[in-house]
Amino acid sequence: MRKIGSLPSGQQAKLFEDYLLTTGVEIKVEQSVDQWSIWVYDEDQIEHAKQELQEFSANPDAEKFQGATRKAEAIRESKIKKVADSARKQVNVRDTWNQPFTSRCPVTSLLIGVSVVVYLFMQTNEYGGQIRQALSISSFQTSGNMIRYSPYLLDIREGEVWRLVTPIFIHFRGTGGLPLHLLFNCFMTYQLGGAIEGNRGSTKLLLLVLLAAIPSNLAQFYWAGPSFGGLSGVVYGMFGYMWMKSKFDPQSSFYVPPNMVVILIGWFFLCMTGAMGSVANMAHAGGLGMGMLIGVGTTFLKQAGKSK
């Protein structure tokens, strides 16, 4: 924000403020002793505002400035209405906590449902090993604590392209045999996926899931091999997307509670320390980075389109 000059009366300052608003320039007027200072918010609009102020100071009664107050009030009322409409439509992550699965969120339901079914089958001696081999990013053989696999993703190169995505459905038992890995990921998918799908639709959520899953799975594979799985990379991708949208795109209607940011970012760095055991940290990083990139990228592309 920069001061561009002053006017001798509050009436003139108000009229000039109204006129500039009709041209798309927002200013701040401050009274100081016997004059009213004019401050411009946007640095890119300073030169235009200076020229207008010079012309206004020379002839405030010019025809172009008359009627500005009425037009400015209409603009302000329109902005207030947009903010109110946006608030009514705002998607709060907390709003999804008490919602059951419905047909309005088929992709979210599918992610959770398939993960649960795969987990149950993996607990059986008959199908567990087969399912893990089929869904892992690469087939592998185990010998004691050793895992043998090809670093060249030969299965995918031979046409099994689903392996780029399907590791997200593999979940492992935690301490005491409890499915904590599955429960946490399904819980967060329910919240974040439900919020995104309800706001953006099933197709866009599905695209976001694919764009987060593939790079996060590849990152984890090249970092530590094929022995990994889980929705965590996708969860962090959805979180990163919503987080950036809530920060840079107020009209997106997304809201991420500050405590959720603290929890997920804190968990991200805690896992990095190794204190939580073997965790797919690169999948978390890849998903988070891709989600943030998509959130910021789509926001700035939309803003660039509006400015043309």
UniProtKB/TrEMBL annotation:
GO biological process, one term: proteolysis
Enzyme Commission code(s) on record: 3.4.21.105
UniProt domain Peptidase S54 rhomboid: residue ranges: 159-296
Cellular location(s): Membrane
Domain Peptidase S54 GlpG peptidase N-terminal: 1-71
Xref: InterPro entries: GlpG_N_sf, Peptidase_S54_GlpG_N, Peptidase_S54_rhomboid_dom, Rhomboid-like_sf, Rhomboid_protease_S54
Membrane-traversing stretches: 228-244, 256-276, 282-301
Annotated keywords: Hydrolase, Membrane, Protease, Transmembrane, Transmembrane helix
Membrane topology reported for the UniProt record: Multi-pass membrane protein
Protein name in the entry: Rhomboid protease GlpG
Gene designation per UniProt: glpG
Pfam families: Rhomboid, Rhomboid_N
Family membership noted in the UniProt record: Belongs to the peptidase S54 family.
Predominant location: membrane
Molecular functions per Gene Ontology: peptidase activity
